[in-house]
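sanity check both lines:
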Amino acid sequence: MSLLPVPICFGCAKAAQMAISCSECLQISCGSCFGLKDDDLDSSQARFISLLTARVCPNCTAAQACTSSNIKKEVEVTIEPEPEPPTTVNKVKQERCWSHGKEMNLFCLTCEAIICGDCFLAGAAHMRHQIDFVETVFQEKRVETERKLARLEETVGVLQREAKHCAINLTTIQSAERAVLDEIDAICEEAKQSVNRLTVNRKRKLETRAQFPAKKQKLAATLHKMIDQMPPAEFFQKQSEVYQQCDELIADCAPKGFYALQFEDVGCELVPPYEMQKYTLMNFDGTFAGWPQHLTTSCGTMWNAFLRKKELLCIKVSPYEAEAAKHPYKLLVQLPHPNDISKNLTKTFTIHGPPKEEEIATVEYILEQGFMRKNNELVVKVGLRPLNAITENRFFKNHCRAMKSSITDLEKQVTSSGKDINCKYCIMHFALSLAKTPKKSPEAIHSNDLVDSSERHWCLRVYPFAQTLEETNLKVFVVLRKGTRTKCRYFIELLHDDPKKNVIQCTESAFDTIDAGYGWHCFMERKRLLSDTGFYSSGVLRFRFGVQPLDK
């Protein structure tokens, strides 16, 4: 029998299959107490165990704890530790690594984590990372944080100063607001007084006229009662006086041709009055004509009014200037009754944006209520005004801005091409009216003669189409009426209310025959021309043409 010494673990008092001796305390521990894993305890093969991966020996830590407790018991006199000198920055509390049991005095800048020396030397997690001391990094971070706090305090100070300025501005704005509101109240009060001054006399007359029958009826009743109470002797005595009073009452009650006073012209600077216009529709029960009609507002804008009659009587208004349609307007339409003023039909509409038809009344209602006058005529009163003074002011500003822009463009055109056209061309203006009835073969209309420097006579020949003739287009030609034959450069321009929309054509032709016209058989399509009323304002086409003979 062979007796082999078996090491006993100091920690668990069991036989140690793999004994490890600590170089510090010289005590023997088994692998489990020392912190090794099961794979490390495999005795099937010999291996070296790196203590850098093991935990701290439990015997050493227990010995240290016991030693410190024994020292406390043996030492009766306690020595108070000297107070540390005050420092401006607190020291970083050193902790031990849970893996290696060493002080964590390093800081990995890459991972932003506190580590110990063995974590950096033996571990692969922080290999080739930037490492610095914890105390150094702590001091730098504290300084950076203090700088940010200082900037924050400075920003807060700026905000406080801005808050003071905001409070001052708020007070100023409130004072200005009160002043403006007071001025608005004063303007409104002035407008109210203006309207009152305009209507006070009218209202007084109407009130007097409305109360007149009641007063006369009361006087007649008093006189009748007095006569009934008179005895015969007194009646005969005052008969002449009673007759005189009766004649006076009869004379006062005689009709005086009273007419209703207009209300559409009531307005002020804030709310302008309606500009009413009266139209008579002839043969309304059949096919009436005479429309479109022109309307003018208080701010001088021109509008077209169209009436359409089928089952309904509708009205549509459109401005001459497109800018006016961008602002709200008020449209007033009235059908005055020929016999009873209480049956007058009045409709108001707000006009804003593209033109659209507004319903006035059904034709059946107009005929049933007796709005028709003798000779089958219907009277329509139409008025238009801006919605208020603000709308009118905005329109004037935009209109003025557009006029300035047009003047600037015209000045540029005069500067760039005015010398070439106005100096070298002989120019003439010509205007003609559109035909209102269809013609199968419209006759040409000639302008007056234009005489150039070589005594040649030129004119503009126009074939205007009828508004109701679908297949015709506008034809314009330049004609040599008298003089020697020549090659000529010429232009023809159709004028628009907006100079930017003028249509101009320019070319050259050899005028070898007298009275032969050279120009364009389709200067402008009929549909395009009729879609824009700016080309035929008041039903008139306006032309400008010029010739420039090219003599050799």
In short: The chain is about 35% helix and 25% strand. Confidence is low (pLDDT under 50) at residues 43-55, 65-79, 85-92.
